[in-house]
Amino acid sequence: MSAPDREKLLNAIIFFAKNTRHCSKHKVLQLLYVLDFEHFRRTGRSVTGLEYSAWERGPVPTEIDLEFDDPKEDFRQTIHFSPDPMWNYYMYSILPRRDWDPTVFTPVERDILREVAAQFHSLYANDMTHHDGGAWDRVWRAGQGRYRPIPYELARLCDEPYGFLAAPAKQR
């Protein structure tokens, strides 16, 4: 990943952590996917340069998924996790360690960041449901495409390119 893409990635995580509720690892991975695929749909390129694979619970940028468990120094300086008690377990919310830098993004990227944060602001990751026919769904195919890459080109072929709908939030 190039240095500018890495800086955009870190700043996108900071932005989502500051501008959405219930910002867990799972939710931020889904938000990054929506950001990248929506930006690709509009411009022909992603924001972060991440590659996504079809996993059972949704699209996952494997490179960053692994980094949550073994973070690089710049990642550790950017975020930390705070345990939030849930019924009989803890959800680990992402909290930023620094301010986000809007100057690393283009105006279109900033607009999409705001749109994605607003659309999924109050939802838990599990409330972001997969839409039939979206890019993830076209690769996942009821598990037949498990761990296969999700081509960005699908963002332009699908009615709902990133494949998430904002489901009504459940009462917690």
What does this structure look like?
The protein has 172 residues and is an alpha+beta fold. It has one domain. It is built from six helices and six strands, in the order H-H-E-E-H-H-E-E-H-E-H-E. A hairpin with a 2-residue loop joins strand 3 and strand 4. Helix 1 runs parallel beside helix 5. The longest helix has 19 residues. The C terminus is likely disordered.
Provide the fold topology.
Elements: H1 3-19, H2 25-43, E1 53-55, E2 58-60, H3 62-69, H4 73-78, E3 79-86, E4 89-96, H5 107-119, E5 128-130, H6 135-140, E6 164-166
Antiparallel strand pairs: 1-2, 3-4, 5-6
Helix pairs in contact: 1-5, 2-5
Rounded mean pLDDT score:
87
Please give the domain count: 1
Helical content stands at 40-55%
Regarding quaternary structure, what we see is single chain
Cα Rg = 15 Å
Would you list the SSEs in sequence order as H and E? Answer: HHEEHHEEHEHE
Discrete helix count: 6
User: Strand tally, please?
Assistant: 6
Structural class: alpha+beta
Q: Indicate the low-confidence ranges by residue numbers.
A: 167-172
Summarize the biggest pleated sheet. Answer: 2 strands, antiparallel
Strand content: 15-25%
In whole angstroms, the N-to-C terminal distance is 38 Å
What's the shape? globular
Strand order of the largest sheet: 1-2
What descriptive keywords fit this protein?
single chain, 172 residues, alpha+beta, two-stranded antiparallel ribbon, two-stranded antiparallel sheet, 6 helices, globular
